[in-house]
């Protein structure tokens, strides 16, 4: 019997299988890791940057379209064409086209010193639009379309509120009103409103009082010029005078408490409070006085150069030298009245025999020509050839409102009744 032989088991293949499994496991892990890396990989930042750049580029046109505004204040000696060229980048053809387009609306060769011109630019070199305040109420707008210009006039858009100022005269009206918070323009308007009842150059007394209700205006959040006076009360030497603004079929004006226009044929005085007060002239530091002379003529002692105005509309019958009167202006008015203004230092332009004058129009300046011992105005009036005292002139009240308007007027008056007490 052959002996049985036992062979040693071959373990090498087993070891090989184990290694293979390990290698395959590692490969599997690597594959799984790579798969998840790929699946959850971070976004390509370069693409983000590209997309962001595209978005920014898309926004750039709107940013460029934002208007850039150049403000320019007209100075003495400025030439309009030079302003349009330097500030608006308009060439000569542009300026000619602009002036032609504007000729029926506003003459830009007459722009005023101190006024503001605003030029609006977009991405173009030349201004796309310009705006010019014609006055405190109206705005001129010029828009350019390539080489063509369109011009229009609009009302200035203000934000309006109502304000009340109440003050007592301690020194003189102008300074006391400014101290109370009124602007110069509103103080002067107050003088105009009551110019038919009160001589503001000589009759204002310490202790007189006034109340003014007016429009306080702002523009784009900034203080702007005041609007009109809506209602006012002035107490002069114990007598109360009232004024209410009322729009009578598009003809706005000031009316007294009974609904009569405050305007009359003659102003109370030939020295305009507005012209004297505006700009703080020396006339307010040297008070004007008056006295009645023979034949009811009135001498107004005032500094040389003080403006003199016609107290009513009329026709100049003479303007020149008259011996002892010096430089004299005589004016014929309606209803048989004639006024004279003597000892003038000079005449206003266009004042000559035969010329027409309006009420409150400048006709000359206070002086001391002829037989005169000091600077003053000699003011006189005749009715049908007979001297009359202008201070005692009993003129009819202004035109009354029609019956169909009284109700609306009373409503306006009642709005300010409590404020004007």
Overall pLDDT score: 85
Largest sheet: 10 strands, antiparallel
Tell me the radius of gyration.
42 Å
What name does CATH use for the topology of the largest domain? Nuclear Transport Factor 2, Chain: A
Structural class: alpha+beta
Roughly how many Å apart are the termini? Answer: 152 Å
Shape: elongated
**Series of H and E elements:** HHEHHEEEEEHHEEEEEHEEEEEEEEEEH
Your description of this structure?
The longest helix has 28 residues, at 12-39. The protein has 421 residues and is α+β, with helices and mostly antiparallel strands. Strands 12, 13, 14, 15, 16, 17, 18, 19, 20 and 21 form a 10-stranded antiparallel β-sheet that branches. Strands 6, 7, 8, 9, 10 and 11 form a 6-stranded antiparallel β-sheet that branches. The protein has 3 domains: 68-155, Roll (Nuclear Transport Factor 2, Chain: A); 158-264 and 396-421, Roll (Nuclear Transport Factor 2, Chain: A), CATH 3.10.450; 266-395, Glucose Permease (Domain IIA) (Distorted Sandwich). The protein is elongated, with a radius of gyration of 42 Å. Mean pLDDT is 85; it is low at 1-13, 44-65 and 279-286. The chain has helices spanning 12-39, 45-64, 80-88, 92-102, 173-180, 184-193, 273-277, 403-415, and strands spanning 68-73, 116-121, 129-133, 138-145, 148-155, 159-168, 209-219, 222-223, 229-236, 239-248, 251-255, 289-292, 298-301, 307-309, 314-321, 327-332, 337-347, 356-357, 362-366, 376-383, 386-388.
């Amino acid at each position: 019997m052959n002996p049985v032989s036992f062979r040693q088991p071959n373990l090498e293949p087993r070891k090989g299988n184990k290694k293979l499994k390990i290698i395959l496991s590692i490969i599997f892990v690597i594959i799984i890791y790579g798969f998840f890396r790929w699946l959850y990989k971070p976004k390509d930042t370069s693409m983000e940057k590209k997309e962001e750049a595209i978005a920014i580029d898309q926004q750039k046109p709107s940013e460029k379209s934002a208007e850039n505004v150049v403000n320019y204040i007209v100075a003495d000696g400025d030439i309009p064409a030079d302003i349009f060229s330097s500030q608006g980048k308009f060439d000569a053809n542009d300026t000619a086209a602009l002036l032609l387009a504007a000729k029926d609306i506003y003459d830009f060769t007459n722009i005023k010193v101190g006024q503001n011109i605003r030029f609006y630019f977009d991405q173009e070199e030349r201004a796309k639009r310009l705006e010019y305040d014609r006055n405190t109420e109206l705005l001129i707008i010029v828009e350019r379309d390539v080489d063509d210009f369109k011009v229009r006039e609009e009302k200035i858009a203000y934000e309006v509120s109502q304000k009340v100022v109440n003050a007592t005269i301690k020194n003189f009206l102008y300074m006391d009103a400014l101290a109370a918070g009124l602007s110069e323009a509103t103080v002067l308007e107050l003088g105009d409103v009551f110019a038919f009842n009160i001589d503001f150059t000589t009759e204002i007394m310490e202790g007189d009082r006034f109340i003014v209700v007016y429009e306080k205006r702002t523009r784009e959040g900034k203080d702007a010029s005041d609007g009109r006076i809506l209602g006012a009360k002035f107490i002069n030497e114990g007598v109360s005078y009232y004024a209410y603004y009322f729009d009578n079929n598009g003809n706005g004006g000031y009316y007294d408490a009974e609904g009569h226009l405050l305007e009359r044929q003659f102003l109370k005085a030939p020295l305009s409070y507005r012209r004297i007060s505006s700009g703080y002239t020396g006339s307010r530091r040297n008070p004007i006085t008056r006295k009645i002379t023979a034949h009811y003529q009135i001498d107004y002692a005032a500094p040389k150069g003080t403006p003199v105005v016609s107290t009513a509309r009329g026709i100049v019958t003479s303007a020149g030298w008259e011996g002892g009167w010096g430089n004299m202006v005589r004016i014929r008015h309606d209803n048989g009245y004639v006024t004279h203004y003597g000892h003038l230092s000079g005449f206003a332009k266009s004042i000559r025999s035969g010329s027409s004058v309006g009420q409150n129009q400048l006709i000359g300046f206070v002086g001391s020509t002829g037989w005169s011992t000091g600077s003053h105005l000699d003011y006189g009036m005749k009715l049908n050839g007979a001297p009359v005292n202008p201070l005692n002139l009993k003129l009819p009240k202004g035109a009354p409102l029609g019956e169909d308007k009284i109700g609306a007027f009373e409503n306006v008056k009642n709005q300010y009744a409590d404020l004007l007490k």
